[in-house]
Request: fold
Amino acid sequence: MGFLKPKKYVKPASEVAFEKQLEEERIAAEKEKEELEAVEEKRKKRFAAGKIGSRSLFARAGGRGLYQEGEKI
Reply:
């Protein structure tokens, strides 16, 4: 009675490749988001400790600060 069973769906190669590409993009986006969150968390901790900001111990006149984020003076 095999004629009563529905045919099994077989995904075409293009659909499989598209799903793989979407998964890779999702993983890359999650990784980038985690990196941005880590950088933001580090900045918040430094701000709370008084290492950066307009009223920090290391600030210069004009609000430029002794340490610019990501730059060496």
Q: What stands out?
A: DSSP finds one helix and no strands in the chain. Residues 35-52+66-73 form one domain. The mean pLDDT is 81. Helices lie at 13-48.
